[in-house]
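Subject: Interface between my chains keeps coming out wrong

I've been trying for a while to get a sensible model of this assembly. When I model each chain on its own everything looks fine, but I need the whole thing in one frame so I can look at the contacts. Pasting all components below, labels as-is. Any help appreciated, I'm running out of ideas.
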Amino acid sequence: MTLDLLPVGQGARITAVDWKCLVDEEAHRLRALGIDEGAKVSVSHRGVFGGRDPIAISVGRMIVAVRRAHAAAMEVEVL
Amino acid sequence: MSRQRKVALVGNPNAGKSALFNALTGARQKIANYPGVTVERKSGRFVLPTGEPVEMTDLPGAYSLDATSPDEEVTSKVVRGHFPGEAVPDVLVIVLDASNLEQHLVFAQEILALGKPTVIALNMVDLAERDGLVLDAMLLEQELGVRVIPTVAVRRRGLTDLAEAIASAEMRHPGPGITDLSLTERRVAAHAMAEGAILSETRRHRLHAQLDRLLLNPWIGPFVLFALLFVVFQAVFAWATPFADGLEAAVGWLTDWTIEFMPAGLVRDLVTDGILAGVGSVVVFLPQIVILFAFILAMEASGYMARAAFLMDRLMSSVGLSGRSFIPLLSSFACAIPGIMATRSISDPKDRLTTILIAPLMTCSARLPVYAVIIAAFIPSRSVGWGIGLQGLVLFALYVAGVIGAMAVALVLRRSVTKGAASGFIMELPKYQLPRLKDMAIGLWQRAWIFLRRAGTIIFTVTVVLWVMLNFPQARPGESQVDASIAGKVANGLAVVVEPIGFNRDMALALIPAMAAREVAVSSLATTYAVDATDEDEQAMELGDQLKSRWTLPMALAFLAWFVFAPQCMSTIAVTRRETNGWKWPAFMLAYLFGLAYIAAGLTFWTATAIGL
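Reply #2:
Try treating it as a single job with all components included. I did that and got this:
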């Protein structure tokens, strides 16, 4: 399952990230924020209008907004 | 030791760095740009317990020394001493959010690996305690090998200890120190240290999680946002009025005073008609700008701004922008100048440029006087049903035309001149906090000063130039001054260009001084039609009758359409030049907006004429 499909509130661990899907700078930024392979994450909120984009991801003690396209590049395993 | 030592604050965004900086330096701050980039350089004077004054700078927030934004690049270069013209800081103060150590220690290790004299401010320990988190600063000190001082910037807790630690930082022998690790290694170490430093942790109801459930709720969230925006608009347009009227009265009083005490002549005319009228017309916007910025600063300081960006991201992404562009564009409804200044919060340079370029399309308050006069004169005041007036509807349509125009332009620009990787939206949603009055006051004062200085200097120059153009060469007896002046000659030339879109020579003439500020078009038309008016209401009313007898309805509509798009504001151009570091983009902005204005006015004129209005 990819991160964008994870139900709200469900804890998960990022197992693999398809970095090729992401622009260098975005990949960089995501990793700097701790959204990386091995990170424990959950989806805390989804966007409002069509497509439920963007999504708010809780990682560590932070909440980070990302686009669904970013989340789709991340494979997660449910914990 | 004659050279003043330098201390720099460095840390992740949302670590409370600015609040700590304000607490340490007070209101004595200098704000400028780092040379060659539009990143704000904030510095202030700070006196060590030894009595030695040092220069303290607040470096832009960064997640890593491996820069991904212009802000991060400045921080990265300055701390490593690679920024030309910027002295290497003697002491670094790393600011950490106590309740987010696991994340903030990742960057802290990168800084510590530089091996510079460093002190750590374990900031916002009160918020951590609110969340039920008690930390062991001593343990962190042992692990990191530098002094770790718990602080609460907003309550001035720990500041004396921090000052002492800064004073002695250079004397301290570096401990075992932190070696250069990879990002993954640093993250593992940060996790271990953060966990180890926790003395006790009690799960409390976390306030921000509950607020988010409400404010990011798919139904309630947008409703709250729009209600808030409604209040902001009300405030900007209604609350500011008495203050604006007061300022206007003050300018009027100053004008009267000048007339009374200066001998009549060209110099007095320059002061009253040129400087006071021109500069005064911009200064009256100060109350609106201060109120607008009060809301923006409160939204930023409370953490709500990031939520607003989150809610609006989907809409903005449909034209190739991101949620971060929302607030600058919103501000532009009051005035494009604070809007363009607010684009500094957009990290992606292409996104930022696009937002700057479309900001003037948001209907700013300077257009209102023009719209009001023309609509009152030409649009009949009747209802179109359901209690909606035709005049209000036309005004609303003009606002909508600006927004639609901006979205269309953004869509085109993102596919052509500002093409780049699809702009992403990656943004930390910070914890909610109550904004501090002192930080707000400092921020407001800085914004107001920047506005007055930037807009004031350019407006001053332009109005003097325009006044000269309107008054020289002097008319011979019997000849009208306007006809004789340079501006009159230019208007004759301009009239040929704008004739195809239905403008007459008077309209062309009004466009010239309106380059300084849009609302000047009204007073300039009034002057041209030689209306003897004493106050603005009378001026507007009589001008309306004048306009009705000289203009046709298609001409008036074309004039309105022109003002939706035309970049008739020198201050906006000047700010754009400053924020984009050159004349290329302001020139582009002028060209495309005048092009659009010409097409829109032409289309309006010929369509209206064709359907027999």
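Reply #3:
Confirming on my end. The domain at 3-78 of chain A is CATH 2.30.30.90 (SH3 type barrels.).
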